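User: quick one, fold this
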Amino acid sequence: MRRRGDEAVLSFDYDLLLVRAVKTLDRRRYDPMTKEWTIPIHYYADALATLEAEGAEVEMDEELADMHERAVVPPEARPQITVEQSGDQYLIRFEYNRSLVQAIKKVPGRTFDAVARAWLVPVEEGALENLLATLNETECTVEVAPGLKA
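Assistant:
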C-alpha cells in the first residue's frame, strides 16, 4: 500500500478473497489499466485492517508507514463535516463515511433526512455540545456555521 496524494493505492496479485475484502471498503475504485485499487487516504486504516483480517501481509511505503506509526491523518485528508442550524434543527452534512455514521448514531434524537441529505438533530440545551463532542471523537474536520455556539 502506498500513498499517492490524497489516496491510498492498493496493489496485489489477484486473490478472490482479497478482492472481495477490498470491495467492502468505502469509496474504493479499481483501475483496470494499472490493476490497482484506490481509496481516499482517510480510509487507509480500514483497508489495512480489512486486508490483515484476510491474512494478507501488507507492506506500506515510507510515507504511509510513518503516518500510520504516528496515527495521524493530515487535516486535508480528514472527512469534512458542516454543522448549521435550520429552524429547530441542526443540519449535519458530510460525504458518506462509515465511522462518521456510526458516531452520529450515538447522538440522541438524530434522524437522517434523505431529501436534504443531512443528519438532523433537534436544537435543545446541550445538543450542540454533545454533537461536537461526539464528532470530535473521530478524525474529521468540523466546520460550524457562524453564529452557532457550543
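User: anything notable?
Assistant: The two ends are 40 Å apart (CA to CA).
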